[in-house]
Amino acid sequence: MTRFFRSRLVWPMGALVALVLLNTISRPSFLSISVKNGQLYGSIIDILRDSAPLMLVALGMTLVIATRGIDLSVGAVMAISGAVALQFISKSTSPNRVGTVLIAIGIGVFITLLLGLWNGFLVAVVGIQPIIATLVLMLGGRGIALLITGGFITTITSSPYAQMAQGHLLGLPLAFFFSVGAIAIVGLLVRRTALGVLTESVGINPSASRLAGVRSRGIIWSIYGISGLLAGLAGILYSSNIMAADSNNAGFLIELDAILAVVLGGTSLRGGKFTLSGTVIGVFIIQTLTSTITFLGVPPAVTPVFKALVVILVCLSQSSRVRQYLGRIRHLRAAKPPIRLSGLETEVLAERKSG
Amino acid sequence: MRNTNTMDATSTGAIKSGMRRKMKARLSWIPVLAALAILILMLIAGQVHFGSFVTPAMLSSLLVDNAYLVVLAAGMTFVILTGGIDLSVGSVMAFTGMLSAKLLSVGVPVALVIPLMLIAGALFGTMIGVLIHFFDVQPFIASLAGMFLARGLCFVVSLEAIQVKDPFVLGLESARLGYGDWYITPTGIIALIVIAIAAWVLAYTRFGRTVYAIGGNEQSARLMGLAVARSKILVYVVSGVCAGIAGLIFTSYTAAGYSLNGIGTELDTIAAVVIGGTLLTGGSGYMVGSLIGVFVYGVIKTAITYLGADASWERISIGILLLAFVVVQRFIVARANRN
Amino acid sequence: MAVDGEPVLEVTAANLRFAGEFALDAVNFRMFAGEVHSLMGENGAGKSTLIRALTGDLHLDSGKIRFYGHPLEFPNPAAAQRAGISTVYQEIDVLPNLTVAENIMLGREPRRWGFIDWKQMRVAATEALSALGVDIDPASRLSSHRLATHQMVAIARAISADVKVLVLDEPTSSLDQDEVAELFRVIRELKARGVAILFVSHFLEQVYEICDRITVLRNGKLVGEYLTPQLLRIDLVQKMLGSDANRFDILNAKQSPPIERDGRTVIVRARGIARRGRLPATNVEVFEGELLGFAGLLGSGRTELARLLVGVESIDAGELTIDGVRRRLRKPRQALHIGLAYSSENRRSEGIIPELTLRENINLALQAERGWLRRISHHRQTELTASWIEALDIRPTNPEGLARHLSGGNQQKLILARLMALAPRLIALDEPTRGIDIGAKIEIQHLITDLVDAGLTVIFISAELEEVLRVAHRIVVLRDRQIVATVNPNVATIEMLLSLVAKAEDDE
After folding, report:
1. Per-residue CA distances from C83 to A154, A155, C49, C67, C206 (Å)
2. pLDDT at A336 over 50
């Protein structure tokens, strides 16, 4: 039981359950699922479908954050992959052929893989701070996407392409299978190879990892590549949903949602230990939160306020000062003398000492 | 024999180290000079290419059209000098603008509205600073929370744009003092005053020097007995107040408060400051550099309009410039560390 | 020389723990006006901790600090500075990105109408510098000057205030002889003015030249306070390193006798290897199957030499031959690949991965060697982990426990297991027994000798001479970053080692 409560997934899981409960109480139809034409419909199904792009991006972000890094460029990268794929299809003579669509996706994703590797190069080889290294592409990326589409929003009609985000399989939205597939592949990649543990080792203690012979440069490099690739796929899904390459809005601010999902899931921004299942829960929390806010009649534009509150709460719960304060309360209960404090600086020092 | 060798080695070493010292003394100005050189080169290239690019009107509009960015960059420079980052400025600017439009529309006197805008900005800054310093939240995340909060609150104030009719606020932009084709608006004057005060504070107050000290080495600054905690929070308050002033300028510029104003402005601001030669790791940089950085940004924008090129080039060129400057800075820091 | 009367600064029964371990254990210490007092001790003795506690940078768990007889504790270094206690910390606490004048004056800079008066500031800074005999432009950036100047600037800052107590933690580490002489002249001047000075240095001859009184700490405990003229240099070193010979009786005499050098294979041969700022050109050989001890004080170059020999840091000059092949090792990974391993003296920062499990920690190096694609199967990992946990007796034995929960000795074993899993030919152990309790210490010594019996070559670094003497087949003695002797432990005595380690550099 204690072990269960100590698990890092308890809090995110609890938050998700609470959100779902809140929704169900205020709107009993929330959990209901209806069947039309052999396909499932309902709020839950919507959440599963709509969360797919964020899921892909957040999985990559989890790995990047585990290396003590951050990838701000994911939104811009999404815009680029969508632009590349749609531009290819729109120029193609046979936009409805599956082969065309597959090639388009292949090119789009390959280019974003290269962009991810470019980020990795800046971070691991040139040694630029991750925030700044990825900021470059974040700033420039949307411009590149706009150039690819010639400054317009490229729209296409291609039924195989539309299927990805809008189609169904076994009654469930196809996009959901993309999420599941990505979770499974990334999960296998990090836990069935040694990539996960080596990433954690580099993220926790770079100098000890160096002494143990870990190739941290190569690892960091490939992680950014993976993040780029996943963001590229997310961009394909996004563009498939609207059947247009909207370079300005594709993946807009998604980097922030992805970071939030990772943090909510219990992976520390200081790098090291990561949990993919936590991130998955984090993504669902964000998606459910968005849907809840919409339902409660709050304009969706106000959503950031709630996200801000969540960020602040999560950060406070991770803060050593708050933990120390809680710990002190426990100590006081155990009738220990309180720590003498005089002024703010002393507190800071006391914290440093114990840290 | 051995002795002569040693003598030789030492004396050449001394000459070399003397030269190196002179080089290094100017090292911190090199990025600023590089930005200035790029600015001048761009102006010359524009003049050559377009025939009449560098005109008094164009140079005047460079300041006036980017006045809000100058003010934001002034605040951001403080933050980056301490080694922090403030992602909230664009949203806070939008929020204070929104707030002012709303308050003015319900009849609150302008003399009250403007101080309220500054206070609102300061409050956001305080929140971010406290999160960073006392709760050990990374600046990126803390200011991200500030960004979300301000953006969301914009929509709480109003979902639609609110027009501003207050003559004073509008006058800040429409009033023009000019000489020939040269002109300046009160917003431009405000921007110049802000940058001048900021430069003065950085150079001549203990707070300003503490900002540099924190960016150099926070632990050392603390051991020197400087007010690290207070200064670290204060830079975010300064940045917040600057965002408030920028909100005023932007409102008078667009004659409206709109919730979607200033999206991505934080990135433009950071780019301008970095292009202006301030090290992102903190501790080195100058206010005048940030001003130049904003002008570089402004010239790129103008040139792209002149070219009739796609607006997307604006972002791409900023990205490329940012990359170039960051790599150069990285090189400088690496050299400094080696010695 | 000793001044009678009340101490200026006094601390009694000081206790301070970090993470449950005593950093200071009932330490008493006092300083008198007009006296230079030296605090001596090896790594982890508690010198820096005591200094930081005295100057308000750390707070004691218990114990009393008295300043001119009044009990008080400074909330922060700034308060201590205001009261007249100035400190030059070991890690030079200057700001290279600011000007020299600011580094000296910031915090009490002259102001006019609330704004910094730069002109006055430069004048005041020039005065402070000229008192030290330093002539540099106060308006120049500090980063444009040499490291020694940084140190002089830090000292200028410390003495430019109205100073009553001056704490100098390793102030001479980057100064040349003339600069040291200049510093000593200033110290004597301040002493004549009645300033109480705390001087910490690992240069013994400097301590004997300038200090009136010496307090020795070892492992966070007070060994004693002595007047310099009454304490022989060799006794001082003995007190610093510990002389509790009895406790090693538990360790049996060496299983294998020291081996004759002739006819043995050389694993590593270093010819003139050097690295700028770390170690001047040095020659040394490591023979196959030997347990080579490095003896020397802190700062003697013992760590630097080991790190260069096993490729943790790359050499800028000289030649490193491994198994007869000349190598240029740039990364630990390359060294590990040819069978050279290194275990750092900093177990926490360069050893364990605290948030990973024992299993993950033990398999880390092996996994890194295989590359991320070829993961060691979970089954194999568990097997390997279990065998190492058993072989090295790591406790607690749970392979899924986190490394950070282990005690110091067990962390050391964990690192040893990680490296041994690679089956290296040579392993350099930098202070593997530091800061761990006596039982674990002996256990690790046994482990090391067993490994050597099994054919491993070991470089063993320790600050405890008895330990080196007992364990090693051959001892390289370092002093002032130079090898001063190579000793056969069968004929050497503690006294001999002590005199080699302690001898002043100028009476060679």
Report:
1. 72, 74, 20, 9, 28
2. no
Which amino acid is it at B203? A
Contact yes or no for A193 and C58 at CB 8 A? no
Q: How far apart are the first and last CA of chain B?
A: 29
Fold topology of C246-351+424-507: Rossmann fold (3.40.50)
The span from the CA of C314 to the CA of A223, in Å, is 28
What are the tens digits of pLDDT across the range B189-237? 999 999 999 999 999 998 999 999 999 888 888 888 888 889 999 999 9
| B74-128 pLDDT tens trace | 999 999 999 999 989 999 999 999 999 999 988 888 899 999 999 999 999 999 9
Domain C9-244 shares a fold with domain C246-351+424-507: yes
In which element (H, E) is residue C28 found? strand C21-31
Taking only the tens place, the pLDDT of each residue in C409-455 is: 888 889 999 999 998 999 999 988 877 766 778 888 888 988 898 88
What does the pLDDT average to over C314-325? 89
Residues sharing a CB contact under 8 Å with residue C301, sequence separation 6 or more, in sequence order? C279, C282, C478, C480, C481, C482
**Is C97 close to B28, i.e. CB distance below 8 A?**
yes
Cβ of A256 within 8 Å of Cβ of B148? The answer is yes
- Which single residue is written with the structure tokens 């007009």? C34
DSSP C81-111: HHHTEEEE-SS----TTSBHHHHHHTTS--E
Q: Please state the ipTM of this predicted complex.
A: 0.78
pLDDT average, residue stretch A280-303: 83
Interchain CB distance below 8 Å, A197 and C367: yes
Confidence of residue C248 (pLDDT cuts 50, 70, 90): very low
Longest CA–CA span in chain A (Å) reads: 80
Show which residues on chain A lie within 8 Å of chain C, measured between beta carbons.
192-195, 197-198, 200-201, 204-205, 207-215, 219, 272-273, 342-343, 345-346, 349-350, 353
- Among the partner-chain residues C368, C372, C418, the one whose CB lies closest to the CB of A193 is C372
State the residue range of the domain holding B236.
27-338
Buried b (16+ CB within 10 A) or exposed e, B214-240: bbbbbebbbbbbbbbbebbbbbbbbbb
Q: Residue B44 has which token pair? A: 């010359």
**Chain B interface, best mutation among A73, A139, A305, by max B CB count within 10 A:** A139
Radius of gyration from C-alpha coordinates of chain C = 25
Q: Identify the chains in contact with A, defined as 3+ C-beta pairs within 8 A.
A: B, C
CB nearest to A303's CB, from B152, B259, B315: B152
Lateral strand order in the sheet of C291-295: C340-343, C426-430, C457-462, C291-295, C474-479, C482-487
CATH topology of domain A2-308: ABC transporter involved in vitamin B12 uptake, BtuC (1.10.3470)
Q: How far apart are CA C103 and CA B200, in angstroms?
A: 20
Out of 3.40.630.30, 3.40.50.150, 3.40.50.300, 3.20.190.10, the CATH code matching C9-244 is 3.40.50.300
Whole-angstrom distance, CA of residue B186 vs CA of residue B306? 26
Which residues in chain A have Cβ-Cβ distances shorter than 8 Å to C374?
194
Q: Which residue of C has its CA nearest to B81?
A: C97
Beta-carbon contacts of C225 under 8 Å, excluding residues fewer than 6 positions away, are C28, C29, C30, C213, C214, C215, C216
Share of chain C above pLDDT 90, in %: 19
**How are the residues of chain A apportioned to helix, strand and coil, as percentages rounded to the nearest 5?**
75, 5, 25
Kindly state whether C368 is in contact with chain A, defined as any CB-CB distance less than 8 angstroms: yes
Size of interface A-B (CB pairs under 8 A): 130
Q: Do C372 and A201 touch (CB under 8 A)?
A: no
Q: Do A349 and C374 touch (CB under 8 A)?
A: no
Residue B27's pLDDT band (cuts 50, 70, 90):
low
User: pLDDT band for position A329 (50/70/90)?
Assistant: low
